[in-house]
Amino acid sequence: MDLLKRWVARQFTTRVIVMMPIAIAINIVLGYTVQSVLKLPIYVDSIGTILVGVLAGPLAGALTGILSNLIWQYAPGIGSGSSIGPFAVTAGVIGFLAGIWGYLGVFRSRPASGLGLIVPAGIAVAVIGVLAARMYTIPNYSDPNNGYPGWVYGAIVVIGIVAAVAVAGFIFVRRDAAGAWVAVAGAVTGIVAAVISAPIVAYVYEGVTGSGTDLIVAVFRRGGADVYNASLGQGLFSDPIDKTITSFVVFLILGRISVRVLARFPLGERLVGRVADGESQPPDAG
Amino acid sequence: MTNTTAMAEASQAESSVLPDFVRRIPVRPYLALHPVTKATLAMVGAIVAFGVRGWTGPAVVFVAVVVSGAVAGVLRRTLPFALATIPLVASILVVNTFLYPNAKDAIVTVGPLTPTWTGATAALQATLRVVAFGLSAAVFALTTPIDDLLVELERRGLGRRGAFVVGSALGSVPRTVERAREVTDAQRARGMDTEGGLPRRFRGLVPLVGPVVFGALAEVEERTMALEARGFTAPGRRTLLRKLPDSRPQRLARWALLVGSICLVAVSLAGAVKLP
Question: What pLDDT is attached to residue A279?
């Protein structure tokens, strides 16, 4: 009991308490701007959540996610009819997972060369391959009554290949083995987010959310999938891609924050690690 | 762009009115309710609108919200909130009416399109649900000053950390909106393309996200020092000076509504009572 209390108290230092509202604002504003100014078909509304989770821990991350969505929905002048509120559950889980990645040191920079780069890149490509193969072969996807249309399988292959090339490229260009773990963490977060979101979308909104992704839902429905499976299919498409991109953005942000500042956060040590040889700052990310 | 501008303008308009602690406590029927009562009403609205399937739950919430909005005199101002649900509602109506899985009762058949009654019914129910929930959030947002709610929640044990996080987040949003707008304008001046094709807009992501996030993070250090210097981590509870009138009937009504709505959802989900 006492251990639990200490664990909770350790996550909510004054620095984290100050960071959380700023992270919430970043979530809301970037989510809003990316979807309305740049009009991109991704969400980018969990950068702040993942940042807090990685820096402070699971509870702080989960709370940031939940509050982001509730404030987005209920605050005057911000929400105005957005359908984000019920997804507070998903956002909470994303933050919780980010906290676990923080404990595991997933986002710590791991400069390497030669074999040290080839092995993680190989692992990352293998994991992406396994995930894609898993999606390819889930039996109820090819069920003649509730299955998906044929082009889905082609799309899974293409997305898998693009993701593998992008992640391997990131690892080699930046000479940083951490890219592999960030990609895996992002993909896992995305799959979990999709699995949690699907029942919410199906139960609350009959399968659609009023954004560009509804087109994917419509195609799945045309292929004969029921409301839940169509939502799940759409989520399994959009979420792993969105969360992997978000994870890489967070990784780049963390790389630009000075070690001195990072180390003051509860999980700072796990982010900084052993970088005493003057290479604490990775080269310009551009 | 228009959205962010509107958000920034709304925040400016709000900051020009008197601060909350100077204002008189309103006497209009719905507005005079205790903020925790209004928060409970919003929560019960969400629970019933989403929890009770079919027509009854959303319809009851919709009527209740419209009536309370009218009593509070904010009905006209909820219109933008209702209009904002149009893309979602349109999508719900189209996708479900035309593409409802395994629905056989076609209304008409026009070429490859076969709208079904089952689909249309599900679509209309979902629409009512979404609009009722959206309006309940809108009425809550328009009638409840957040500062009042936070003070009263802190009195009930929220803790000053929780109150700070929510209050500060609300203040940070307009500031961050303003910053995002400045960054977007500056990057546009330097040639960032926000209107071109998909790859071009994707490239605009980095020059936007970077400055917004780093600018915001730069504040963390300063604010931490400021709070520590003012005894934020001191033990004990703060003395809250502002107290809003609460009453026994309101307290009872809050508990009754909350327990009643949860029971209603449980009963209707278990199928014990068949509601239309």
Answer: 46
ipTM of the prediction = 0.83
pLDDT band of A78, cuts 50, 70, 90: low
Say if CB A121 and CB A171 are below 8 A apart.
yes
Of B141, B168, B176, the CB nearest to A29: B176
User: Looking at residue B1, what is its pLDDT?
Assistant: 40
Summarize the confidence of residues B18-30 as an average pLDDT.
Answer: 69
In angstroms and rounded to an integer, the radius of gyration of the C-alpha atoms of chain B is 23
What are the helix (H) ranges across chain B?
A: 2-15, 35-51, 56-72, 79-84, 86-98, 117-143, 146-155, 160-189, 198-203, 205-229, 248-270
What's the rounded Cα separation, in Å, for the pair B156 and B34? Answer: 13
Q: At a CB cut-off of 8 Å and minimum separation 6, what does A282 contact?
A: A109, A111, A174, A176, A255
What single letter denotes the amino acid at residue A75? A
Determine the length of chain A.
Answer: 286
**A9 has a pLDDT exceeding 80:** yes
Domain total in chain B: 1
Q: What pLDDT score does B24 carry?
A: 66
Cα B31 to Cα A82, A161, B38, B70, B138: the distances in Å are: 24, 57, 9, 11, 14
Contact residues, B window 105-124, toward A, CB-based 8 Å cutoff: 122-123
Q: Is residue B137 part of a domain?
A: yes
Q: What is the pLDDT averaged over residues A103-110? A: 90
B102 domain-assigned: yes
In a domain, B13, yes or no: no
Residue with the larger pLDDT of the pair B268 and A222: B268
Cross-strand partners of B98: none
User: What is the DSSP secondary structure assignment for residue B190, as one 8-state letter?
Assistant: T
Count CB neighbours of A166 within 10 A.
16
A201: containing domain: 2-272
Best mutation target among A74, A140, A201, A258 (most B Cβ atoms within 10 Å) is A74
Chosen for mutation from B136, B165, B228 (greatest number of chain A CBs closer than 10 Å) is B165
Residues spanned by the domain of B138: 27-144+245-276
- The contacts of residue A66 (CB under 8 Å, 6+ apart) are A88, A89, A91, A92, A95
Distance between alpha carbon B74 and the CA centroid of its chain, in Å? 16
Give this prediction's pTM.
0.85
Query: Which residues in A lie closer than 8 A to residue B141 (C-beta atoms)?
Result: 74-77, 79
Is residue A281 domain-resident?
A: no
Given this model, what pLDDT does residue A280 score?
45
**Inter-chain touch A204–B88, beta carbons under 8 Å:** no
Q: Judge whether A218 lies within some domain.
A: yes
> A214-218, B155-159, B170-174: which has the minimum mean pLDDT?
A214-218
Q: Is the pLDDT reported for residue B97 higher than 50?
A: yes
Type of residue found at A238 = S
Do residues A15 and A264 make contact, with C-beta atoms less than 8 angstroms apart? yes
Domain assignment of residue B197, yes or no? no
